[in-house]
Amino acid sequence: MHYITGKHLSRRTFLRGSGASVALPFLDAMAPAGRAFRDPAEGFTRMVAIYEAMGCAGSNDWGDSQYLFAPAKIGRDFELGEQNQLKPLEAYQDYMTVVSQLDCRMAEPFKAEEIGGDHDRTTAVFLSQSHPLQTEADVFCGKSIDQIHADRFGQETAMPSLELTVSRIDRSCAYNYHCAYTFSVAWRTPTDPLPAIREPRAVFEQLFGAGHSAADRVNRLRKNRSVLDFIAGELADLKRTLGATDRLALDEYSTHLRELERRIGLVEAQNSSGEERAMPEAPTGIPDRWEEHMELMFDLQVLALQADLTRVITLIAGVDQENRTHPESGTNKSWHGASHHGNVPADILDYNKINTYRTAQMAYLLEKMKTTTDAGVPLLDKTAIVWGSSMGDPNLHNHRRCPLVLFGKANGALEGNVHIRAPEGTPMANAFVSLMQSIGHDDFSHIGDSTGELALRYASTPGATLEAGA
Is the pLDDT of residue 416 over 90? Predict the structure, then answer.
């Protein structure tokens, strides 16, 4: 750690110990009184992209007519019906930009031999909006928007980007497609997919376990002690130099860090106890409950953003053809099985129950980011969260009317509380062009099959409604 009494702390201050390295959140002491100062993270919009597999019930013609995804009202102050899959997130509507009726045609088959391979292409298309090359050898897709953002705004951070997943990455791939297309949503270049980390402990160590050497890290883990124990001396010394507000902020940050580490340890201990597991094949660090896994990954993301360790994160919330069940949703059908609803209204509603339950988990992340501040401003106001799927109606394996929601205010680029209904046939890529331009990429004009821009602010007559099935 490098700080001198009477001078401000660097935003890049780390507290280091044997086997640990902890970055600090923004503190008042990092802004020297009476002198010009620019926070390295100030004005830069964070990006979090969350991929949801297998479209949604609202992408089906009948589901769209029932407003299962797209709200009935276009524009501001829309209402979410009781069966809308976004209903559980209603408390965050002011941070919600719903963009409906978008197509991801780059995930469609271009040649006869590609027919049937939709599940094997879709993940790679979401953020790249590019058509994957059908190959089991040399992959080729397109650079994803998260990596474009990381190139411009993530190079000052310890990690330009962070890639996460909560799903197994051992599903067999088919139709002559490389498995990278199925398990990689982030593409650094068209030929360089970035692998996602599944184990919370591995993510935690990447964020906070730098230490002095690999041996130091192994020693710390063997002692089963918190990273905070290894920086206790430096932490105490620092707190003595801080004002009351900064001490409180640092205590809160430390508490969250220790609690997260404790929860990860509990998962590992429980899964190593020899008791029967719901997922016997999973590594000991993987929670058996998907919901707990998601929460741990969300907590890791918030800490990483708060400490400005990274400004770009991707999370794969589920992979195509995943047969996980969510009994708490109100149906015991498997996720993939329910997606093939046969266009039967009752079965479409069953699939919608799963969509709604899975989407509801976003409330945990949104609340955390709303109540966690950076330089006095909620992280949710400084972040663009891209949530969606590049599949539309999974029953048909099509890529029309794909769901997309942008959460957060993105430093004012997104207004929230608005439903944008794109003209029929609009590529999702158009929405990404406008998003990227609004968060600092003034020269960004094209990606994938984009044909222009799609305004993410509503300027038409308020009160317009969506005709059923339009």
Answer: yes
Rounded CA gap, 164 and 127, in Å?
Answer: 14
pLDDT mean over 448-465: 79
**What single-letter DSSP state applies at residue 376?**
T
Residue written as token pair 């006869």: 112
Phi, psi of 206 (to 5 degrees): -65, -35
Given a contact cutoff of 8 angstroms between Cβ atoms, the answer to whether 412 and 89 are in contact is no
Strand partners, 406: 97, 386
Task: Please tell me the distance from the alpha carbon of residue 19 to that of residue 227, in angstroms, as a whole number.
Answer: 8
Distance (Å, whole) CA 408 – CA 92: 9
Q: Is the separation of the CB atoms in 368 and 83 below 8 Å?
A: no
Closest CA to 7 of 46, 43, 35: 35
**What is d(CA 64, CA 62) in angstroms, rounded to the nearest whole number?**
5
pLDDT greater than 70 at residue 459 = yes
Closest C-alpha among 441, 341, 414, 367 to residue 96: 414
Q: Is the pTM of this model over 0.85?
A: yes
- Mean of pLDDT values over 344-355: 98
